[in-house]
Amino acid sequence: MTRFLLPATLAAVLVAGGGWFLGQPVQTPTGLSLPGAAMAQEAAAPTEAVEIADMTLGAEDAPVEVIEYASYTCPHCARFHEEVFDQLKADYIDSGKVRFTYREVYFDKYGMWASLVARCGGQEKFFGITDMIYAGQNTWARAGADGAIADGLRKIGLLAGLDKDQLEACLTDGEKLRSLVGWYQENATADDVSSTPTFIIDGEKYSNMPYDEFRKVLDDKLGE
Question: Which residues form the Thioredoxin domain (predicted)?
Fold first, then answer.
């Protein structure tokens, strides 16, 4: 767990090639904002950073560590979670071979809002909500106006069993959002992340890949 505050610098995001790339060295994204009444809270300087936890699956003593850097608005990340993640979980995470950590990357305010919803249920619900967010990405992320996108994310949270008041509290938590963005920036800078999805496997960086290639990398790390 790490504590960070949001730096003042904001950066634009570019779409390039087959992935989503930052236009310059990792910085915080344009458009830091929250839905509805949280705009007033966002304008006030936070007095204390919020503690941010890594979201993890698998045995703590697993021989291989995998860290995924991903954005909820990245279609390539959605494809990875639809086509690769379930196999990875069944073959390596559930079997105790891999300790898996998911870290959010923020390209836009919608990805930030999705992160707040995913984290609203804590570690217990995080990965289930993440799956729902990616499965519905083509719907909520293309809903049009900010209010419609926020409502789409709210519906996912409610379907996941979050209480309405709990969900609104999460979506209007400006200090949590600031700490999340600072946490993302620190981690992504340390791991030299410039596109999503990016994977850090036992300290080595890898780009997006199909399951067969992912399995080969893991088997090599495991000595199998």
Answer: 33-223
What's phi and psi for 39, nearest 5 deg?
-60, -35
Kind plus residue range of the DSSP H or E element containing 20: strand 19-22
Helices (H), 45-93: 75-83, 85-88
Distance, in Å, from the CA atom of 25 to the CA atom of 106, rounded to the nearest integer, reads: 14
195-196 sheet: strands from edge to edge: 13-16, 19-22, 195-196
Class of domain 51-222: alpha beta
- Which tens digits make up the pLDDT trace of 26-45? 344 444 566 654 443 443 44
Write down the H helix ranges in the chain: 38-43, 75-83, 85-88, 109-120, 122-135, 137-140, 146-159, 164-171, 174-190, 211-222
- Domain ranges in the chain are 51-222
CA distances from 88 to 36, 48, 67, 136, 191 (A): 38, 38, 13, 21, 22
Q: Indicate yes or no: pTM above 0.90.
A: no
Give me the helices (H) in 44-91, please: 75-83, 85-88
- Strand, coil or helix: 216: helix
Residue with tokens 């926020």: 150
pLDDT of residue 108: 87
pLDDT in tens, 72-107: 999 999 999 999 999 999 999 999 999 999 999 998
